[in-house]
């Protein structure tokens, strides 16, 4: 699927490479976002769980 390009302004091959680059960059960004969500999401869940446990123990022993 090639974008509609005015051939008088520039060659279509330039835009085809740019479209491919945007597709690869978008895919890499999605993979990086998913990886960061897994790493920091799970660690944040663990940290939140520890903080809640400390808060419950603190409230219990008061």
Summarize the structure in words.
It is built from 1 helix and no strands. The chain is an all-alpha fold and 62 residues long. It has one domain. The protein is rod-shaped.
Could you give the count of β-strands? 0
Percent of residues in beta strands?
under 5%
Straight-line N-to-C gap: 67 Å
Mean pLDDT: 75
> Which structural class do the helices and strands define?
mainly alpha
Taken from the alpha-carbon principal axes, the silhouette is: rod-shaped
Helical content (DSSP H or I, runs of 4+): over 70%
Number of H- or I-type helical stretches: 1
What Rg, in angstroms, do the CA atoms define?
Answer: 25 Å
Order of helices and strands: H
Count of the separate structural domains: 1
* Biggest sheet descriptor: none
Question: Uncertain spans, ≥5 residues at pLDDT below 50?
Answer: none
List the helices and strands and how they pair.
Elements (H helix, E strand, L loop, with lengths): L11 H49 L2
